[in-house]
Amino acid sequence: MSTRAARRLPVIDAVSAGGVVWRRDPKGRIEVVIGYQADERRWGLPKGTPDRGETLEATALREVAEETGLEVALGDKVGVIDYWFTREGRRYRKRVHHWLMTAHGGDFEARDHEFDEVIWTSAGEALAQITFQTERSILEQALAALEGDA
Questions:
Q1: With 70 as the cut, is the pLDDT of residue 1 above it?
Q2: Are the C-beta atoms of residues 96 and 16 closer than 8 Å to each other?
Q3: In whole angstroms, what is the distance from residue 141 CA to residue 148 CA?
């Protein structure tokens, strides 16, 4: 084995699923749910890792419900974020699948510890607040799909 090959980090494929929870305000404007993680100082969309044997759709529903406290229904698939990162001597390729979702119950107070704060906010404010461009891109795709349905 070459020295160069020996230095290559092992690659791990990782997957997550989540959603863009949305509604229309009384004036018909789109609002979405975003969450804040204080330790990472980031605003983002709810998402998480599948349990063994769980479908991506089931993961998205469960993770959004856990992280927001809302009861949600799955809509159309929005898109997939694909990125790389390194942690503890391993290189990860992560794919995060997102769906449109609507809330039909629940309460932010029922959420788990993942987000320190969860809010409904206008689509424009969400685009300004979300920390990572990849998640802003997913939100833009979701908004385009919703405007196409209007």
A1: no
A2: yes
A3: 11
User: Nearest to residue 20, comparing CAs of 116, 107, 96?
Assistant: 96
Taking the C-alpha atoms of residue 145 and residue 15, their distance in angstroms, rounded to an integer, is 23
Alpha-carbon distances of 54 from 45, 51, 101, 140, rounded to whole Å:
20, 5, 18, 27
**11-24 and 90-106 strand pairing:** parallel
| Tens-place pLDDT, residues 105-139 | 999 999 999 999 999 999 999 999 999 999 999 99
Q: Which of the four pLDDT bands, split at 50, 70 and 90, describes residue 6?
A: very low
